[in-house]
């Protein structure tokens, strides 16, 4: 009898006894379909080892990449959203917030922190797409504004990592006000002559693009990131024309003059450090100054 013929009938394995590969052990690149181990993918900072596709990551990963030894102090970690409009869609807004908090372990769609990056002090705000599509509500606007205030008070450069579908519908007008608020705070930062670096990651759209994401002294992006205001489908339907290939990709946006450069995630930390070294005023330790002056006067 061939071995592959089932002799016994009605064999049944309960689901809990079925053997399966544990979830999250392998990563399949959506771009080139290469399959690599999750550990290797993480080691490569969540970029594809084969084609360099940049996978979406959140504030936890960006802070780990940028802050030295992953050491940082979080600002306003407990700020959560109210429900100013008593908004109900498929469920009431407070319920949606509570469910998202539970699912993601995040309080809202941005986290702000300060610490050292290659020894240089920096304040960073980083958005999380996992929290209601990285939507910008009043908490996002307030936390970014306070982080900018912190940068001004401590005279540190400010960096914003954007990843957002735009304004948060459930807060309607309150969301839109955050565009003006954050832009005004950035103007104050600029008056203090402190650098602002804006990193646009996949995707950066809507009110976020239309406010703080595009106001950097340096607007930079990750390769392949979708950057735009309205989505391509909306634009196509409005103008009734087909859009160019790669429309709204970081590369397209760079070519059309809206970005300063595109940076690979693996080179991000060093590139930012080099950039800030060029623009931040050098601090000379006080004790060294008079010595040098005396030495110069003797020599002359
Ligand atoms: Zn790939």
Task: Set down the secondary structure blueprint.
Blueprint: E1 26-28, E2 35-37, H1 38-43, H2 59-66, E3 72-75, H3 93-104, E4 110-117, E5 120-127, H4 138-154, E6 158-164, H5 172-191, E7 196-204, H6 206-209, E8 218-221, H7 232-239, H8 250-255, E9 261-262, H9 268-279, H10 288-299
Parallel strand pairs: 5-6, 6-7, 7-8, 8-9
Antiparallel strand pairs: 1-2, 3-4, 4-5
The chain binds zinc ion.
The site of zinc ion has 8 residues, from loops.
Description:
This protein has 300 residues and is an alpha/beta fold. The protein has ten helices and nine strands. The protein has helices spanning 38-43, 59-66, 93-104, 138-154, 172-191, 206-209, 232-239, 250-255, 268-279, 288-299; strands spanning 26-28, 35-37, 72-75, 110-117, 120-127, 158-164, 196-204, 218-221, 261-262. A seven-stranded mixed beta sheet has the order 3-4-5-6-7-8-9, sandwiched between helices. The chain has a two-stranded antiparallel ribbon with strand order 1-2. α4 (138-154) packs parallel to α5. The longest helix is centred in the middle third of the chain and has 20 residues, at 172-191. It is globular. The protein starts with 25 loop residues before the first strand and ends with a helix. Bound molecules: zinc ion. Residues 29, 31-32, 34, 48, 50-51, 53 line the site of zinc ion.
